[in-house]
């Protein structure tokens, strides 16, 4: 019986293909850039989304505004749309996507269209935020709308969440809901976060590495390059520190976990800063940034302690230059301690695997990633979360697009999850 209903729902989603593309285009046309990236926030986009769905038939729609004086109207909206299920004992299903987008970047690289002037071409919807995360917004909405139009109640209550501030830390988005409205979440809730994936939809993410970004600033003594004995070359010291850290951290934290790709912790220098603006100046300051993606089995505190000790030991070798020695400071730019992974045999993973097999004919693989998603916030409060979608990985790129096939096919999988 469920299989027959699902077939009808899938057919209805297919019939909505053009409408889904138009709705995505409409949402793309409203910029929703957070203030940390120079934008006015998500208010206008949230208002339009609420206007679109107000008469659809959701059981209830709630809005939770996180105060932020930097943005339009002083709030960052978070929307929850509920569609009540037929089985009150079944776990609720959350599908969470985000309203905010990143800035366009170099406008000269946008050759198909302007970032917020979406176009539909060759089976794709182009524009900033199309894949990240507009595709997820539209797919989740139309999975529910197909059920509504057919008069089908899902087995489990569905909570569609559309949150702010995912791109810059989630303090005003899911983080706000977890901190200020913990009562929204039940211990047996299931969570899908459609905010990462692969082009064939075959990968389910259940784990993330810890993330640590640090800036190490070396202070020396500036001098003319022809008289290096009169100064302390901060560049030379930083180069030695960078090399020593790279070798030491990779050697000490070398255990592998095949759940992840790559299966090891990574410690990569990514940026350098030097105020010297001439080739004949020995710089008195030099900074290097490390991006560290650390397996959950390791402690970020241990890594920071080893970084500090390595800097100290390296600097000792430069003592005596120009009657002094260099100094250093370690600044943590970002720190995200990875929670325990979602178990491979958790209900959300098993249901998603089933949906992909039955709806798409896909036998998915399960694993971890080095990047960070809001799924980590769910895992930290004990809720199993799976991250999945079908994407070409165009996020944050010029000429970003979402394939309409992906919009439609992801909605089918989401609908199946609601009905199981």
UniProtKB/TrEMBL annotation:
Residues 206-314 form the Peptidase M20 dimerisation domain. It comes from the Archaea. Keywords: Cobalt, Hydrolase, Metal-binding, Zinc. Its cofactor is Co(2+); Zn(2+). The keyword Transmembrane does not apply. InterPro entries: ArgE/DapE, Bact_exopeptidase_dim_dom, Peptidase_M20, Peptidase_M20_dimer, Peptidase_M20A. One of its GO terms (molecular function) is hydrolase activity. The keyword Repressor does not apply. This is Acetylornithine deacetylase or succinyl-diaminopimelate desuccinylase.
């Amino acid at each position: 019986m469920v299989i027959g209903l699902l077939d009808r729902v899938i057919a209805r989603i297919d019939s909505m293909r053009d409408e889904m593309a138009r709705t995505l285009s409409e949402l793309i046309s409203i910029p929703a850039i957070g203030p940390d990236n120079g934008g006015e926030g998500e208010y206008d986009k949230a208002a339009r989304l609420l206007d679109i769905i107000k008469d659809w038939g959701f059981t209830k729609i709630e809005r939770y505004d996180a105060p932020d004086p930097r943005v339009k109207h002083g709030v960052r909206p978070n929307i929850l749309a509920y569609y009540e299920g037929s089985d009150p004992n079944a776990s609720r299903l959350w599908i969470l996507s985000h309203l905010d987008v990143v800035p366009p970047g170099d406008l000269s690289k946008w050759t198909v269209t302007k970032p917020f002037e979406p176009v539909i071409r060759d089976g794709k919807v182009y524009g900033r935020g199309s894949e990240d995360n507009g595709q997820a917004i539209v797919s989740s909405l139309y999975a529910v709308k197909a059920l509504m139009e057919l008069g089908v109640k899902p087995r489990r209550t569905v909570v569609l969440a559309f949150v702010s501030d995912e791109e810059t830390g989630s303090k005003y988005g899911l983080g706000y809901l977890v901190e200020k409205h913990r009562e929204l979440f039940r211990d047996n809730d299931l969570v899908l976060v459609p905010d990462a994936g692969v082009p064939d939809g075959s990968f389910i993410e259940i784990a993330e590495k810890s993330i640590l970004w640090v800036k190490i600033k070396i202070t020396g003594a500036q001098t003319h390059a022809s008289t290096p004995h009169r100064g302390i070359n901060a560049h030379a010291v930083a180069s030695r520190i960078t090399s020593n850290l790279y070798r030491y951290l990779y050697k000490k934290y070398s255990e592998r976990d095949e759940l992840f790709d790559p299966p090891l912790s990574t410690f990569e220098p990514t940026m350098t800063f030097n105020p010297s603006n001439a080739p004949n100046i020995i710089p008195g300051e030099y900074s290097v940034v490390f991006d560290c993606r650390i397996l959950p089995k390791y402690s970020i505190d241990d890594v920071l302690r080893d970084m500090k000790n390595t800097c100290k030991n390296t600097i000792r070798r430069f003592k005596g230059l120009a009657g002094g020695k260099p100094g250093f400071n370690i600044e943590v730019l970002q720190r995200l301690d990875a929670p325990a992974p979602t178990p491979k045999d958790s209900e959300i993973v098993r249901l998603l695997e089933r949906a992909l097999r039955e709806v798409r004919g896909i036998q998915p693989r399960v694993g971890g990633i080095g990047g960070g998603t809001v799924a980590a916030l769910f895992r930290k409060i004990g809720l199993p979360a799976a991250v999945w979608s079908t994407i070409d990985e165009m996020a944050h790129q010029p000429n970003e697009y979402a394939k309409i096939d992906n919009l439609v096919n992801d909605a089918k999988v989401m609908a199946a999850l609601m009905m199981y």
